[in-house]
Design a protein that fits this description.
Two copies of one chain form a homodimer.
Chain A: H1 3-11, E1 23-25, E2 32-34, E3 40-50, H2 61-79, E4 82-92, H3 97-114, E5 117-125, E6 129-139, E7 154-158, H4 163-167, H5 178-188, H6 197-203, E8 206-210, H7 214-225, E9 228-231, H8 240-246, H9 250-256, E10 262-267, H10 269-274, H11 277-280, E11 283-290, E12 295-297, E13 300-301, H12 303-306
Parallel strand pairs in A: 4-5, 9-12
Antiparallel strand pairs in A: 1-2, 3-6, 4-6, 7-10, 7-11, 8-10, 9-11, 12-13
Helix pairs in contact in A: 2-3, 5-8
Organism (chains A, B): Marinobacter maroccanus
Binding site for Mg(2+) 2 (chains A, B): 47, 75
Binding site for Mg(2+) 5 (chains A, B): 212
Chain lengths: 318, 318
């Protein structure tokens, strides 16, 4: 099978399936064409996924298709953007039809679930690597940035933290317990918080998705906002499964492990006050933004840890 | 050096340098933001470049930075789009500061030359692979597609063909002759035909960039347009250097080798008549579009060769 046949069989079916608001020419030409509705901005982000770095060798291809698009889409949620379409650059060691079938099935599930239509791509031979770029739109000037946190803002996170990181310990477990299965589900099938995008752009001053770990990602908000913060480890939202599996170490996972794709948000007290219960019930307040620099965890400054920490792909070589 | 420091030092300087018409938030947040001017469409394309597949191992990093952005930008030229910005997903085996310095220098030269500003990216560890997505804009409805060729259209190509393909034979030449240097320049420093974009959208019915070889890429136009063509090998524009180096084989290079990043365009006879001399002087008419299927080269149908041919990355495995 050649490159063109491969694209035709596995990837063209992912284009033109949604009632896209903006994609007017999908895969198959030199470029795709998107018509951004009047009064809206294009919001976009690219993420690379490398075998052995971002996912294990011989990782299930249907999980890979889902996870990669979920991780990329999470950046749209963090900006408060509505999903539109995506591109895929896929590098494969060889044409394995079963692998492609399974991968495109996982990708298609995510594409449907997140409302992201395939706009274009490139498929080549080489070490297994994916690069996905997601496109969303948001009302002009309403995208939420990392730099908007203000002293006094409440810091909140969505969902529970640390599950995906803990799952790494059980990927090769031959007979996983129900608790292990619960955290593994977070790792294999993350859900980007696109459901919160409307609330993010309506109420939040700053937002980031937690891909590298809470301390690292909150550190990015503080650096961009030139602010500090105080957070309390006792407030961290932990799943029952994580607490049972990791005991006293559960907090470490919630603070320092990545791949959760939850959101970290900063709200002015007034906005928090006015936010609907339907939003607040999905969030947990873990601390407050400070004018003074430093990221204080239970009173101890861990900002030196937070700045270059998280999942820093080059730290080992530096 | 960590990932964030690496990005800050080598890649952030490529953002915010141009008087961008549309990029309103560049690298450093969860997403970049582009505001497409009213009445214009976003036009975008992604290309992957893998070491050992798209460029030789230990290839000069400054050449790599230039070539990769040039190749990606060529797709914008083929749509008749004006360049705006690009994203880069870069996977590197290790942090080599000299390599990064040279790579970003080549990339910056191309960024300046083509008017493409860095909008965002992702940098990770792994086998050397690049994925670049270029964004352009064009007046709504004016993007030129592959599917617009009509029977009777004249087929023209820009520049000269085959030089970059011939250069592959001399990449390791210790003392290259002036002719070898001339074709090597085409390979190392291709110029996407963004200078022709205005003419493309004003006069051409269909367009494609010649990245995989003339027969393959013209084949894409014919397949999308459900048409055939007759072309004459004697009309192919060959550089003097290629003719001297390859003699009777020069035509084969012009027909079947890739990496030239010239354009193949189809014009109605009326539009060709009215096109300015400044455009025509950069183009060579090589044939005509036919209602009957088939791609006839000097009267011999080579459409079976043209359809899956060219630089098909998976052909050897199929």
């Amino acid at each position: 099978m050649g490159e063109f046949e491969l694209i035709r069989r596995y990837f063209l079916p992912l284009g033109g399936r949604q009632e896209s608001r903006s994609l007017i020419l999908g895969p198959g030409d030199d470029c795709a064409i998107q018509r951004i509705p009047a009064g809206r901005d294009l919001v976009f982000s690219v993420d690379a996924f490398v075998e052995g770095v971002h996912f294990p060798r011989n990782y299930r291809p249907d999980y890979l298709g889902w996870r990669a698009l979920a991780a990329a889409a999470s950046d749209l949620a963090a900006m408060g953007a509505d999903p539109e379409c995506f591109t895929l650059a896929l590098t494969l060691p060889a044409v394995d039809e079963q692998w492609l079938e399974d991968f495109s099935t996982g990708l298609r599930s995510a594409s449907d679930a997140f409302g992201l239509e395939l706009a274009g791509g490139d498929t080549t031979s080489g070490p297994l690597t994916l690069s996905l770029q997601v496109h969303g739109t948001v009302e002009q000037g309403r995208a939420v940035r990392r730099s908007g946190a203000r002293p006094g803002d409440l810091i909140a996170v969505s969902g529970t933290l640390g599950d995906a990181g803990a799952a790494l310990d059980y990927l090769a477990e031959p007979g996983p317990s129900p608790d292990m299965l619960a955290v593994l589900e977070h790792y294999h099938r993350p859900w980007p918080r696109l459901d919160l995008a409307v609330a993010v752009r309506q109420y939040a001053n700053a937002a980031i998705d937690i891909s590298d770990g809470l301390l690292a990602d909150l550190g990015h908000i503080l650096a961009a906002s030139r602010a500090g913060a105080r957070i309390e480890s006792a407030q961290l939202p932990l799943s029952p499964a994580l607490s049972r599996l990791k005991g006293d170490k559960a907090t470490d996972y919630a603070l320092r492990s990545g791949d959760d794709y939850e959101l970290c948000l900063c709200f002015s007290p007034e906005n928090w006050e006015h936010a609907p219960e339907s939003l607040k019930s999905q969030l947990t307040v873990i601390g407050v933004v400070d004018a003074d620099p430093g990221l204080y965890l239970d009173g101890v400054d861990c900002s030196l840890e937070s700045v270059p920490a998280g999942f820093d792909h080059f730290r080992s070589e530096s």
